Amino acid sequence: MEDRRLCLDRGWRFTQNPQSVLPRVITHDSVYAFAKGDGAQGPAMLNFNDADWAPVDLPHDWQHTEPYEMTGVVSHGYQRTGIGWYRRTFLLEPEDAQGDVTLSFEGISGIADIYVNGAKLLHNESCYNGFHLRLSDIASFGATPNVVAVRVDKTAWEGWWYEGCGINRHVWLIRRPLLHVADDGVWVKPVREAEGWRVCLEWTVENTGAEPLAGTLTAEIVDPLGEPAGRQEAPVAVEAFGRATVRASCAVADPLLWDVDAPRLYTLHTALVSPAGVNRVQTRFGFRETRFDAREGFFLNGRPLKLLGVCNHLDHAGIGATIPRDLWRYRVELLKGMGCNACRCSHNPPPAAMLDVCDELGVLVMDENRSFSTSRDALGLLGSMVRRDRNHPCVILYSLFNEEPLQGTPKGRRIALRQRAEVRRLDDTRPCMGALNGGMFEPDGAATALDVTGINYYLDSYDRFHALHPDQPMISSEAVSAFATRGCVETDEARQVFSNYDEACADWGETAREANTAVLARPFVMGLFVWTGFDYRGEPTPHEWPSVSSHFGVMDACGFPKDTYYLYRAFWTKEPSIHVLPHWNHRPGAEVRVMTYTNCEEAELFVNGRSLGRQPNVMAEQCAWRVPFEPGELRAVGYRAGKPAAEDAVRTAGPARRLRLDVPLSALYRDTDSLAVVNLSCEDAHGVFCPTESARLSIAVTGGRLLGVGNGDPNGHDRDDDSCVRLFNGRAQALFAADGDAQELRVIVSAEHFGDASVTLPVASRPFPPDVPVSEMRLLGGWRVTQTPLAEKPDVTAETGLGDFGVMDPVAFTGVWQPALDGHPGAYALYRAKVNVGPSAHGRHLVLAAVQGTVEVYANHRLIARAERFIKGRVEAELPVSLSGECQLSLVLRNETVDRHAGILEPISLVQR
Question: Which domains does the chain possess?
Answer without folding.
Answer: 4-175 (2.60.120.260), 179-275 (2.60.40.10), 304-572 (3.20.20.80), 586-651 (2.60.40.10), 658-764 (2.60.40.10), 778-912 (2.60.120.260)
